[in-house]
Specification:
With 215 residues, the protein is mainly alpha-helical. It has 10 helices and no strands. The protein starts with a helix and ends in an 8-residue tail after the last helix. The model has no long low-confidence stretch (mean pLDDT 93).
Amino acid sequence: MNIFRLAGDMTHLASVLVLLLKIHTIKSCAGVSLKTQELYAIVFATRYLDIFTSFVSVYNTFMKLVFLGSSFSIVWYMRYHKAVQRTYDREQDTFRHWFLVLPCLLLALLIHEKFTLLEVLWTFSLYLEAVAILPQLVLLQRTRNIDNLTGQYIFLLGGYRGLYILNWIYRYFTEPHFVHWITWIAGLVQTLLYADFFYYYFLSWKNNKKLQLPA
């Protein structure tokens, strides 16, 4: 494992911890899209089915369990915790996220590296993760005012994907035959979706102002 992969994993883990801190400690999910969290739960549930069939390392298994547990915990908090669910903005979080699932599944059935159940579901998780942030970004554009923890959560999510791109570049030049076009293209699309957010995030940091996205 290289430094970029490790930094990407730790940044991803930090994003989840920031969101859980906001939800569990403050008992608030204001500004957080349940639709995006449900998509992430599907992403991890379909990506990590190999946890039952193969063992890579203790680190690998631990990270899979953390992301599986945290994603479903966040969905449970937002749907069923009495205090947290009262802070959820249902009227603004109206992105029809289920319309993202079927196209990603169809694309995975058509474009994959190997036609097996686990491989198709893994590919599906890549495609779905690439667009899972869309409901969250739409919600932020509608509400405009973004609290610090929500802003940090999305910044860390985008940072994780950026570090993974550096990881792929590093491995391309240091490992023979390291070519994974599906992973690369899906990751690039996902990173580009964060571009607008990062622009306004750095503007707010530079000017020491509250983060706001244009409507």
